[in-house]
TrEMBL record:
Gene3D superfamilies: 1.20.58.1460, 3.30.70.2650, Winged helix-like DNA-binding domain superfamily/Winged helix DNA-binding domain
All copies of domain Transcriptional repressor PaaX-like central Cas2-like, residue ranges: 106-159
Domain Transcriptional repressor PaaX-like C-terminal residue range list: 195-286
Superkingdom field: Bacteria
PANTHER family associated with the record: PHENYLACETIC ACID REGULATOR-RELATED TRANSCRIPTIONAL REPRESSOR, TRANSCRIPTIONAL REPRESSOR PAAX
Entry's Gene Ontology BP terms: DNA-templated transcription
Region (Disordered), start-end ranges: 293-317
Protein name: Phenylacetic acid degradation operon negative regulatory protein PaaX
Species: Zoogloea oleivorans
Residue ranges of domain Transcriptional repressor PaaX-like N-terminal in the record: 20-86
InterPro entries assigned to the protein according to its UniProt record, in alphabetical order: PaaX-like_central, PaaX-like_N, PaaX_C, PaaX_trns_reg, WH-like_DNA-bd_sf
Length: 317
């Protein structure tokens, strides 16, 4: 039987189909952004090669991300750096506030609403629904999207980035205090109508099932026993999987969640595992991360503030 670390990496390698573009977005947000938001394409290819993402797949995915205005190119001689665009960097920085937070945001007891006004063609309505779903919005009565804490301006910016600028004129953003919904019991009823919490809990439980054995192996062996390459690959997969989870999670306040909600366990697991992987993975990046001019930029010191150690919450040993 394979050790948990090797099993997690092998499970990824054996997937029939990999969404390489989404994985590369995670790499840029987690590893490239702290080193100046740029990387030589050849270096990116080499860093991802151990995950069995071949050169052609990485090149194709990066070209597509450039076309979608996540990335832009900057040649340096015969080589090319890929950089985050200003809009891509803003999106990453907004996501980072959720990914690396030590706890869920406090609720100001106001709901964020986006109401559709007028008719939308079925395909555009479905595209809108999917785009807001991936921002954590629930849906009520087919034409009202709801979220407890989203930045509505950022939500509209994200819709523009998704190619939905043509529907903005038929959307009305609103803030509503919980009193406008009646009382806490009505809020809970609304939550169950807007989100499938059972499905989300199941996805969180699956995340914990995948990564808890990895954490236990590191606790038993000591984080110094993991090589830098494996640490980086695990860090990439961890943040990639956790980022996709948070995109679907409205981060509801505790008062509106079922007892023993698995989201908090997943957050604490991700925090401890990330902190254990950070130092060896950064040593690997120091040795293998390159710009087109051959230089290796240093990571910003703020990188080590992610999942702060002073968080009073801790995952039981």
């Amino acid at each position: 039987m394979l050790p948990p670390i090797q099993k997690r990496l092998d499970d990824f390698r054996q997937q029939g189909r990999v969404q390489a573009g989404s994985l590369i977005i995670s790499v840029f947000g987690d590893a490239v952004l702290p080193r100046g938001s740029r990387i030589w394409l050849g270096s990116l290819i080499r860093l991802l090669e151990p995950l069995e993402l071949n050169e052609r797949l990485v090149r194709t995915s990066v070209f597509r991300l450039a076309k979608e205005e996540w990335l832009r190119t900057e040649p340096a001689g015969r080589r090319t750096d890929y950089l985050l665009t200003p809009s891509g960097q803003r999106r990453f920085e907004e996501a980072s506030r959720h990914i690396y937070a030590s706890s869920a945001p406090r609720w100001d007891r106001r709901w964020r609403l986006i109401i559709t006004v007028g008719e939308l063609p079925p395909k555009r309505r479905e595209a809108l629904r999917r785009a807001l779903f991936w921002q954590g919005f629930g849906i009520l009565n087919g034409d009202c999207f709801v979220h407890p804490s989203a930045d509505l301006s950022a939500a509209f910016d994200a819709l523009i980035a998704e190619g939905l600028s043509d529907v903005l004129g038929k959307l009305k953003p609103l803030l509503a205090a919980d009193a406008q919904f009646g009382n806490a019991a009505n809020d809970i009823d609304m939550v169950h109508g807007a989100w499938n919490l059972e499905r989300l809990a199941g996805v969180y439980a699956e995340f914990v099932e995948h990564y808890q054995p990895v954490l236990e192996q590191l606790r038993a062996d000591g984080q110094g026993d993991i090589d830098g390459e494996s640490a980086l690959l695990l860090r990439i997969l961890l943040i990639h999987d956790y980022r996709r989870l948070l995109l679907r999670d409205p981060e509801l306040p505790d008062v509106l969640l079922p007892p023993e909600w698995p989201g908090q366990k997943a957050r604490l697991l991700c925090k401890e595992l990330y902190r254990r992987l950070l130092a060896p993975s950064e040593r690997h990046l120091d040795a293998h991360f390159q710009l087109a001019n051959g230089q290796t930029p240093e990571a910003t010191p703020t990188l080590h503030e992610r999942f702060r150690e002073d968080d009073p919450l801790a995952l039981p040993g």
